[in-house]
Amino acid sequence: MKTMYNAWYKYGTPPWVGSARSELVRLVEGGQLKPGRAVDLGCGEGDNAIFLARHGFDVTGVDFAPAAIAKAKAKAQRAGAAVEFLVDDLTNLRQLRGRFDVLVDYGTFDDLTAPQRSAYLRNVIPLARPGAKFLMWNFEWEPRTWEKRVWNLIPFGNLTLRPGYIEETFAPMFDVEKIAGESGLKGWPRGWAAYLMTRRAPQPEGYMPGISRNS
Q1: Is 205 part of a structural domain of the chain?
Q2: Is residue 88 included in any domain, yes or no?
Q3: Are 160 and 154 in contact (CB under 8 A)?
Q4: Lowest model confidence (mean pLDDT) among 72-76, 87-91, 181-185
């Protein structure tokens, strides 16, 4: 999967590349996300990270595709935005350290297999300080039988999360609020959702919720 994404960024432009995402813009401009230390998880070419930096945040962008990070650095330089970009794997962090006030994930968590999501949680949740805000965007609908069969043949997780999955997975650690979404769309994707989560005080050391495979 890393090789495919790296080639996509190196030789092309994925469809999600562009301006900062509308939910993030609304939350920042409306004051719900206040400047602090922020991390963009799976930052791609850095559009969200650059937006945050230009609005007073101390930003780190992380992606496992070196080609994406190279483009992000060049784009930030052109924009005059100070962002630290790192090549790192959210399921096995080696470079990213510290704790953050704001975490942003646009379409990374839903792209993982169940074991990878467990590893993501082990690596990412400790980055959120108590009271941190976590904005997560994902494809969301109840997958059909044929979709599940296809996903078993490809190395990209399930590509979508079933309704309720985010709440079940993150509720032990966060207060979870769904702030936007659509369902029942024609064609593909058939739905999406955005969540704004607030980190509660952590559970006792060693606690970690299970990850449902029924996603």
Answers
A1: no
A2: yes
A3: no
A4: 181-185
